[in-house]
Request: fold
Amino acid sequence: MTPRRRPRWSELQPLLRPRGIALDGTARRLAGTASVDDLRSMARRRAPRAVFDYTDGGAGDELSLRRSRAAFASVEFQPRVLQDVSTIDTGTVLLGRPAALPLVFGPTGFTRMMHTEGEAAVARVAARTGIPYALSTMGTTSIERLAAAAPDCRRWFQLYLWRARGACRDFVARARAAGYDALVLTVDTPVAGSRRRDVRNGLTLPPSLSLRTVTEGALHPSWWFDLLTTEPLEFASLNRFDGTVAELAARMFDPAATVSDLAWLREAWPGPLLVKGIQMVEDARIVVDAGADAVVVSNHGGRQLDRAPTPLECLPAVVDAVGDRAEVYLDGGVMSGSDVVAAVALGARAALVGRAYLYGLMAGGERGVQRAADILGAEVRDTMALLGTTSVGDLSREQVRLRRG
Reply:
């Protein structure tokens, strides 16, 4: 039997390290998050269901959404040991300019719906982090107001090909005048994907006061208070719209768009041009031939065509086909810094994230976005160190394989 004794105070005292009580509830909750998935759980509790589901959901049966995550879950790293990793350089060059991480805050629609601080909060965090941020055409802050709110942010503007080409030209001119340095053309939206969660939740833009939303308001009073006591949602691309996401897409998106439309855009925009939504190698070749400076391998986060190809699995073939003529980026399923490292090792110049920072935004506004950025950055550094790699440029395919079965 193990002999027992009474512990001495001198032995207990070093173990007693009470933490100060944080009076700010948001700060306290964010301090307890260790991953983007933690932020997702926090966002789910704080945002109304329709708003959370709009961010969290995908198209159809959400197979593409789950497969994108499953692809990253299948990644197996091949680490080297006994490497000097005392200094890690996570910096890279994106479209000719330095970035602190191989990461971009990608474009997301209706961002102020998630939290009224919206796009401005995301852009300010991007500026502090040293990475670009792409404002969506479907954003809820105008091109000019975002530039004024985050003048130090490296701003890209995301464009859809709309039926009204004159409106597209106007957006391009406004973005150029406001100092945006790259244009991201999204090409996988001839029509809107079937977002079943939105249909079931009765989501409208802006959110309407129905019996369901009033009930949700009782469960999430702070969200509704913010919505009703701040400026009405303002869209980057139109003054106002009342209806569902699908109705807005049907009104605006042009199902007749072809690669010839890329030619006039190339003439109208003198800066870097990225084409987002590439899933097939031949399409990558076509848009690069038409003047694209970069392609984004993306299935729209699983929100357009369900059962679409999985970006991480498509990435190496696209890099092999056009990587010597254009930069290749990856978008879809990225939820951790290790995902970012895996994408770069497989040939991406950087990874785009959307849901990851939106979970932070819903969880705690700008501070939540900053927490997401801090988590992702720390995970990138730690993953590189554990791989035995000290710079982003040294990441290679030999360090990653996708497990099957």
Remarks:
- Residues 129 and 374 are 8 Å apart (CA to CA).
- The first helix runs from residue 9 to 12.
